[in-house]
Design a protein that fits this description.
The complex is a heterodimer of chains A (about 120) and B (about 425).
Chain A: E1 3-6, E2 11-14, E3 18-23, H1 37-45, E4 53-60, E5 67-73, E6 79-83, H2 89-96, H3 109-116
Antiparallel strand pairs in A: 1-2, 3-4, 4-5, 5-6
Chain B: H1 6-14, E1 35-38, H2 42-55, E2 60-63, E3 79-80, H3 87-101, H4 103-107, E4 118-122, H5 125-140, E5 146-148, H6 150-156, E6 170-174, E7 178-179, H7 182-195, E8 199-201, E9 206-212, E10 215-221, E11 224-227, E12 231-233, H8 239-246, E13 253-262, E14 272-275, E15 280-284, E16 290-296, H9 308-321, E17 330-340, E18 347-350, E19 356-360, H10 370-383, H11 397-400, H12 407-410
Parallel strand pairs in B: 1-2, 1-12, 2-8, 4-14, 12-19
Antiparallel strand pairs in B: 3-7, 4-6, 5-6, 9-10, 10-11, 13-16, 13-17, 14-15, 15-16, 18-19
Bound molecules: flavin-adenine dinucleotide.
């Protein structure tokens, strides 16, 4: 069971108050009807499933019901950061000193990773 | 290889069972193999065995980063059944169940396959309706299944509480289902594969692939580079990690699944009982422990342990259905890392890399498929074309939309 800093409440809360809803920073295609079956399938079904630094979406379901993101090490389950969607993820990554090489994501951050390498 | 029988048992008892021969060799990896299997769980070992026994391909290595059967194969609750709803699933799980029925004889290894039946419970009208739809589909596929009323259930499982908080209105029973000893399945396949010439190489972690022009040329391991033109990846929870090394992505998330066992007690339960609605499934091992399956955590994790709240969640319904368990101590609890697809069906498929095939996504319910999965995967690797039973389980179903949605039908019933 994880113990997490809720970025809206700014206090430590129990994981059982939240649902964890898969990978964060996957951009939903703006016009789904126009993307190919391949791109749509990639968006819906394929995940980074990272062993190591993982970006994921959490939602509170017992109180404020808002969404936020969590960076967690999936080997140790240690939570490295929690942030609201409007916060600057690049800055958070830089502040944590995470090497871009260690980031494996199937969504938006992929672009970020490409640019930096 | 010693044949296990009453005579070898008597002979070895004279030397206090200290002189049994090793079950398999521990060879140094060769420079090159015809086929390399990555992952020495039940599925990988079964694949190697059928490659050698059915297709005569014996220049095969199974590379295992730890010890064989130490992954999910050694961590599961060993339920075997084939009563899945969709035709594609029925074919593969029934193929597996049939192979299990003859496996102890075929491998000359007692896998302790006990066809004690699996009973699914219905607690409300919706459950009953869903069960009648599923049961009928299963019957149409020629798989043994019977509907039981509450009295028949009470007769089969006398200690069950029919009229508690979760009243029991009926059940679906597969008589040929049951359980087997997980370690013995891995060891039996390993021993027979080794005898046919397969190299089982433990403590050998695959760390990368040699890929030229989209074709696999070899694997890089902690024990050196090994050349090969054909690779079968069978790594369960680590599939995405290995796929990443080969440069492709998979439709999987790896989540912890837990189980626990109680202190041993006298025989109280001679079948497997499951309830999808309240997430309970339990059986009694030959040692007398109650083997209880818990649920998955919601989050991706490679930590090989699960959360306590998941265990808290399953205990109340178990006590409600089996009041005698309230004073039973739970002795051990553990977790495995299960590779889950969205439709809860496996992936047996070619990959974007020529020469690499993958067998994964068995998630929370692949022990029962060990024999069938290994068998059809061996055929696919040997022939370079997917076995007809394996074809629907291609990665491509996530693009063309032909999902095999067992999420609801499989439910808790691992
Ligand atoms: C708690 C629990 C209960 C379960 N209950 C049931 C049940 O009742 N019935 C059922 O049918 N199924 C059940 N399952 C699911 C079942 O255990 C699995 O689907 C099945 O055992 C998978 O077998 P496998 O051989 O594919 O994987 P594994 O046994 O996990 O084997 C994969 C192997 O790959 C190796 N590996 C990983 N990375 C590398 C690398 N880089 N190089 C070399 N080797 C590597 C691992 O060390 C591992 O040994 C349960 C699972 C769990 C965790």
């Amino acid at each position: 069971m994880l113990y997490v800093r809720d970025p809206y409440l700014n206090e430590m809360r129990d994981q059982t108050e939240y649902h964890i809803r898969s990978e964060a920073h996957k951009a939903r295609p703006l016009e789904p009807s126009k993307v190919s079956d391949k791109d749509w399938g990639d968006y819906i079904f394929f995940f980074a499933n990272t062993k190591g630094i993982h970006f994921e979406r959490w939602v509170n379901f017992t109180g404020h019901r808002k969404w936020f993101n969590v960076i967690r090490n999936t080997v140790t389950d240690e939570i490295l950061a929690t942030y609201r969607p409007d916060e600057d993820v690049k800055k958070i990554i830089a502040d944590l000193g995470i090497d871009k090489k260690d980031i494996k994501v199937s969504g938006v951050l992929k672009k970020l990773k490409k640019k930096s390498s | 290889m010693t044949k296990f029988n009453i005579f070898s048992l008597i002979k070895n008892s004279l030397s206090y069972h200290e002189n049994w021969e090793q079950h398999w060799r521990s060879p140094e990896p060769k420079k090159e193999y015809d086929i390399v299997i990555v992952g020495g769980g039940g599925h990988g070992l079964a694949t190697a065995y059928y490659l050698a026994s059915e297709f005569g391909i014996t220049n095969v290595a199974v590379l295992e980063k730890g010890w064989i059967g130490g992954g999910n194969t050694g961590r599961n609750t060993t339920i075997i059944r084939s009563n899945y709803m969709w035709d594609e699933s029925a074919k593969i799980y029934e193929h597996s169940l049939k192979l299990f029925e003859g496996l102890s004889q075929e491998l000359n290894y007692n896998i302790m396959f006990s066809q004690r039946g699996v009973l699914n419970l219905a607690h409300n009208v919706h459950d009953l309706q869903e069960m009648s739809r599923r049961g009928t589909a299963i019957k149409l596929n020629g798989i043994d299944t019977t509907f039981l009323n509450p009295e028949q259930i009470k007769e089969k499982v006398p200690l069950i509480n029919l009229n508690g908080r979760y009243p029991i209105l009926g059940g679906l029973f597969q008589p040929r289902a049951g359980s087997a000893r997980h370690d013995a399945v891995a060891w039996g396949y390993a021993r027979s594969a080794d005898k046919l010439g397969v190299d089982i190489i433990q403590n050998c972690e695959v760390q990368g692939f040699d890929i030229k022009n989209g074709k696999v040329q070899g694997v890089k391991t902690t024990r050196g580079n090994i050349k090969t033109k054909k690779v079968g990846i069978v790594c369960a929870g680590h599939s995405s990690v290995i796929a990443d090394m080969a440069g492709f992505n998979l439709p999987l998330e790896t989540v912890p699944l837990q189980a626990l066992v109680s202190e041993p007690i006298k025989p109280v339960l001679d079948t497997v009982v499951m309830s999808n609605a309240v997430h309970v499934y339990l059986s009694q091992s030959d040692k007398g422990e109650l083997v209880i399956g818990a649920g998955t955590d919601e989050f991706v994790s490679y930590s090989q342990r699960g959360s306590f709240d998941v265990i808290e969640h399953i205990m109340p319904p178990i006590i409600e259905l089996f009041p005698f368990t309230s004073r039973l101590r739970q002795l051990r609890q553990w977790g495995g890392m299960t590779d889950c697809t969205t439709d809860r069906s496996p992936i047996i498929s070619k990959t974007p890399v020529d020469g690499i095939m993958i067998n994964c996504g068995w998630g929370t319910g692949g022990f029962k498929a060990t024999a069938g999965s290994g068998n059809v995967f061996a055929s696919s690797l040997a022939k370079g074309e997917m076995h007809p039973i394996a074809q629907p389980f291609s990665i491509d179903r996530h693009y063309d939309g032909y999902l095999i949605d067992e999420a609801a039908a499989a439910g808790v019933a691992h």
